[in-house]
Amino acid sequence: MIPWETVDRARAPDGAELVLSRRGEEWSVRAAGRVLMTSRTHGSEEALAAAALARVRAPRDVLVGGLGLGFTLRAALDRLAPGARVVVAELVPALVRWNRGPVAHLAGRPLDDPRVHVAEGDVLEHLTAGRGAWDAILLDVDNGPSALAHPANGRLYGEAGVRACRDALRAGGALAVWSAGQDPRYVARLGRAGLAAEAIAAPARGDAGGVRHVVIVGARGSAAGALGRRRGTV
């Protein structure tokens, strides 16, 4: 078996050490020995973009929270018109650097797309910067609303964070949140905020078998009707 090779190390703002590794053509990012993301399993990250954008008519402005290895961003770009705008909020500068360097090829160099603007910082700042600013919001910031690796992310998924997401969406907009598993309490939280919400199973590798993650969708206004018509699909 080919051994893992450490390519780079970096510190996240919270002090956690991130390790970028490769084994042949496979890449991974680990923290404290735990795999955060890998190039082998990105089907659910792509489903995150598909689920939100399928529910929005002619999306123009998209906010992506969490760059990862670029697969969610690539899936969004492939579904957007040439005149669209995508802001990627990423808290860890090293992930931006790696996506411009050693792992850029994995998702087809999405940061080179002129529609993309990278904002290093907390996605919550962009959510609270303006009401009705976004047609779609895609959040892949942690392991999900409840399975947090970083407790500070809890404010994004609590009642105030949900209201911030709702208010940042335009009428007819949609929020999609990546989760490692089902989270009925978060789905209920979206509903209490006035969003039509559902959880969709998404295969980690993009096929019908293997590990399944969850994409939680909350739709505002006319997108809620689209959610009902497309229920259970990504």
What can you see in these coordinates?
The protein is of the alpha/beta class and 234 residues long. It has helices at 43-53, 71-77, 93-100, 123-127, 154-157, 159-168, 184-192, 222-229; strands at 5-11, 17-23, 26-31, 34-38, 61-65, 85-90, 116-120, 134-139, 169-179, 196-203, 212-219. The chain is built from eight helices and eleven strands. It has a seven-stranded mixed beta sheet, sandwiched between helices. Strands 1-2-3-4 form a four-stranded antiparallel beta sheet, with no helix packed on it. Strand 2 (17-23) and strand 3 form a beta hairpin.
List the helices and strands and how they pair.
Blueprint: E1 5-11, E2 17-23, E3 26-31, E4 34-38, H1 43-53, E5 61-65, H2 71-77, E6 85-90, H3 93-100, E7 116-120, H4 123-127, E8 134-139, H5 154-157, H6 159-168, E9 169-179, H7 184-192, E10 196-203, E11 212-219, H8 222-229
Parallel strand pairs: 5-6, 5-8, 6-7, 8-9
Antiparallel strand pairs: 1-2, 2-3, 3-4, 9-11, 10-11
Rg over CA atoms, rounded to whole Å, is 17 Å
Q: What is the averaged pLDDT score?
A: 91
Task: Determine the number of helices (DSSP H or I, runs of at least 4 residues).
Answer: 8
Stretches where pLDDT is under 50 for at least 5 consecutive residues are: 228-233
Q: Which sheet architecture does the biggest sheet show?
A: 7 strands, mixed
Q: Helical proportion?
A: 25-40%
Overall, the morphology is: globular
For the termini, the CA-CA separation is: 35 Å
Largest sheet: spatial strand order = 7-6-5-8-9-11-10
| Secondary structure tally: strands | 11
Order of helices and strands: EEEEHEHEHEHEHHEHEEH
Strand content: 25-35%
- Judged by helices, strands and strand pairing, the structural class is alpha/beta
Assembly category = single chain
